[in-house]
Amino acid sequence: GQQVMQIPQYQHVQEGEDFTTYCNSSTTLSNIQWYKQRPGGHPVFLIQLVKSGEVKKQKRLTFQFGEAKKNSSLHITATQTTDVGTYFCAHQANSGYALNFGKGTSLLVTP
Amino acid sequence: NAGVTQTPKFQVLKTGQSMTLQCAQDMNHNSMYWYRQDPGMGLRLIYYSASEGTTDKGEVPNGYNVSRLNKREFSLRLESAAPSQTSVYFCASSGSGGAKTQYFGPGTRLLVL
After folding, report:
1. Fewest CB within 10 angstroms: A2, A59, A108, B99, which?
2. B99 and A31: CB-CB below 8 Å?
């Protein structure tokens, strides 16, 4: 299926620094979802973006969907140790049911 | 609501043994999924069931079978386990309509020796 590429694969920041992960596709996406997985845990849904150029915020997290609907980003302002985990983007597969997940960006935050 | 539950949490198998991973959801969702997660590989879809009575292959179905027992339950069977099937297995479910946010279970950690 369509693949989305996530960069970077890993990021290590000091607490208080900002963090951004990017999700890129070679084809237009109908929507993009973001999930967070804490170490040892399971993926948890964060947000969905559908419209071209859409921007949504959840406290310190800002999600963007590109104008061409081929890329998306997740930005965390002033990271905290609770932000540690792996962040996945995902988009709906052609079947209309399953999701295709990126390989994720693992964030480590040190105090 | 328990959400999505999976059993067992951990399992160790010997090569060639069989086992069934169980998954149940209490959210009245139509669609259910099985993924495997390996380091650096993200989540890869094994099988999914769009609705009760239907199942379809995902990206990595070889070596697995599934059964959608009823609307609540979706099981994954390994007939003859191989070391390459050592992984963490997640079950997920989603409702119908819209872009289908997925809700994941806690996972089953499987080691095949």
Report:
1. A59
2. yes
